[in-house]
């Protein structure tokens, strides 16, 4: 980084600021000896278990703003005002053919996939954190815009980096499907908008505006730079890489064209291009030509000289560098549009030019309309503006991305199926498509693949189980019970079965594959796919999977009851009871539930262990599934608070592994505080929130929500002040050696699916069932009210929750369209109308609704309703 940073590039402390309490706690204390009692040394945590973030600091969340930016008024943009952030504040842009990662300086990467053919990295850039072996920035930068003053020879980046020249003003707006950078330097205001248009074209659209804010004519050159790589994402190897790459200039199409032409290839979609509506003055296709053999992107040779050399690229680091020359009068603005894309034939570039050049505003308007509709769907309003912004905007956006591109385009089975759950109310057709596609990757035995795109046949035991939760959620949202009879082929065979039979087969597989404790076998792993050594000989058992299986039995028993299939309902209920008994007999460790048993029957996640004495997964699922008794629920929550709770939420396990254990597997070889080895997983924390809500503990759930949520700050030393504005897969754990609490993998997390489901269904309490909408809110005691506009089965339910007694949970009584309603279960009106629903939370001991209820003696419920409605209007 340059030492001469301007007002927006100050040298902020790039180390995560850890509270004194975290620094002083010796997390690794006594790791060398197994515990001799059921009490374990308390893990690092910043607050006492019952203390909320706001209480502990005595400060309002509003008083602590993000040091590098802020949300706009409606929360649909995060505006970065200081480019010199300690981590990337990135955005994901996508359509059905491609996705892009765009950091707040516009650098990043671009992937595309032609249909079901092998996916391609058009350019691998910084920000592609799934490329674990990619380091550094200079050789991985793309979307760079250089501005050169040809009269003085001075030049800078619109992006700010890599030159890092101080600017008069820098701003990056990370919006829904777009990124807009604005940089004012040396009297030139430059604006750069990047977006991926809706549809099925693998393109990015770039709109630049260069405005002369000086009083005299400016003679400028604009250089745009990308690095074409064409990396095969599924591992296809055609003997070599760069030896098949070339770049040339197509004068007829005013485009730099790159291609890769190996002798063997998975498909022909290996042509990339960068074209424009303004004449390209010069180009370079060779990185060495543009940068210089001994140069860097901070001082590229072509920009210093003021001219690209028109050098084609051949068998080397191929790039697309294009130059535009402008003379701009005082106060004048020059527009410039570029299209970056991929195709299977250079001749098709003309069709992309015709479709997009001159029409980018129309495509941007389509994108805005699409996302405005998303934001308006199931919209909430609460006393917490950040909660509203996350639920209404960014959680939905993250859920939508996950449902389309999952893990950077790779469909882990459990991941994509959970993402189907996440859009079951937001985009039911996509949830349906995910279910049908996923079933095609299930074996006739009932087990499913580890994932596809590309195919991974590792025998993880949990894959097919997730189908139950997504299927039931979809049916409750839509009433599309015809789906159950659709025929879907099994993977690797000639047989097909109905959707319902696929689900039966999946559950029968788990029922038949149990170990000596009566628990489900873990095979190669379960949700925690780093426990790869536990069941390698086929005898290891998973406590977490057994609990999740018991919850799936409850869901299926409910479905069978609705379908009037009494025998199946009884069977699933019986299975659930048997599994609950096995779990509570063999998996309780005294203060929490164990995680699993290895092939030799040794417990893991037990006080007996040296490392990982407690895991989070079985604790939160024991609450979700109703496995734990009230006393055990209290004990395990207390244990999680003592041993796993940090400033940023609960850790996955504690203490972290620091020595390899072949009986445990991959997780034991990881560095401490990374991935599954002791990070603060967002996924687990939203599961804990769900479990707490089902116990009626909304205040504690709210505390956990604030801890894990970016931009929810406890004070000036909160580690999240150095984080992104979006949820990540996890925060590094406190035992990480040099970056505790840094985010790992923003956007790439299945937690978006659960956040989008739990916070509306279980928190605000508008939960779909098979034949109605159950209104059962669970609110923090500090919330006097909340509301949601819930779209369900052809009607809109405008639900206002009133909490006059400051209860977390209670008896709910409804007023529907101004009239008292007999219970908390609304029918499917399905009339295309909007229905006004007032839900009042009352103490459980209060008598049923009467004309004197709600604390207004002598007033009818209709009068109460009118008074509440008038207040709402005001």
Give an overview in words.
The chain is of the alpha+beta class. The protein has 19 helices and 44 strands. The strands form 11 sheets. It has an 11-stranded antiparallel beta sheet, with helices on one face. Strands 22-39-40-44-41-42 form a 6-stranded mixed beta sheet. Strands 3-4-5-6-14 form a 5-stranded antiparallel beta sheet, with no helix packed on it. Helix 7 (385-405) packs across helix 8 (413-422) and helix 9 (428-439) runs antiparallel to helix 10. The longest helix is centred in the middle third of the chain and has 21 residues, at 385-405.
Question: Quick summary of this structure?
Answer:
With 874 residues, the chain is of the alpha+beta class. It has 19 helices and 44 strands. The two termini are 52 Å apart.
Shape: globular
Question: Largest sheet, order of strands side by side?
Answer: 1-2-9-10-11-12-21-17-16-15-19
Q: What would the average pLDDT be, to the nearest integer?
A: 89
Count of DSSP strands: 44
Based on CA atoms alone, the radius of gyration comes out at 28 Å
Poorly predicted residue ranges? 1-64, 129-133, 847-860
Q: Main beta sheet: strand number and arrangement? A: 11 strands, antiparallel
Helix fraction bin: 25-40%
Distance between the termini: 52 Å
Total number of helices: 19
- Percent strand equals 15-25%
Q: Could you say which structural class the secondary elements and strand pairing correspond to?
A: alpha+beta
Walk me through the topology.
Elements: H1 20-24, H2 53-57, E1 69-71, E2 78-80, E3 91-94, E4 98-102, E5 108-112, E6 120-123, E7 144-149, E8 155-157, E9 169-175, E10 178-185, E11 188-195, E12 203-212, E13 218-227, E14 231-232, E15 245-250, E16 255-260, E17 271-276, E18 282-286, H3 287-291, H4 301-305, E19 313-314, E20 318-328, E21 333-343, H5 349-356, H6 360-376, E22 379-381, H7 385-405, E23 411-412, H8 413-422, H9 428-439, E24 451-452, H10 466-478, E25 487-489, E26 496-498, H11 499-512, E27 541-542, H12 543-562, H13 566-586, E28 596-597, E29 603-604, E30 614-615, H14 617-624, H15 630-643, E31 645-646, E32 649-650, E33 653-654, E34 680-681, H16 682-694, H17 698-708, E35 728-731, E36 743-746, H18 751-764, E37 766-769, E38 772-775, E39 785-792, E40 795-802, E41 811-816, E42 819-821, E43 825-826, E44 834-842, H19 861-873
Parallel strand pairs: 40-44
Antiparallel strand pairs: 1-2, 2-9, 3-4, 4-5, 5-6, 6-14, 7-8, 7-13, 9-10, 10-11, 11-12, 12-21, 13-20, 15-16, 15-19, 16-17, 17-21, 18-20, 22-39, 23-24, 25-26, 27-28, 28-29, 30-33, 31-32, 34-35, 35-36, 37-38, 38-43, 39-40, 41-42, 41-44
Helix pairs in contact: 6-7, 7-8, 7-18, 8-9, 8-10, 8-18, 9-10, 10-12, 12-13, 12-14, 14-16, 16-17, 16-18
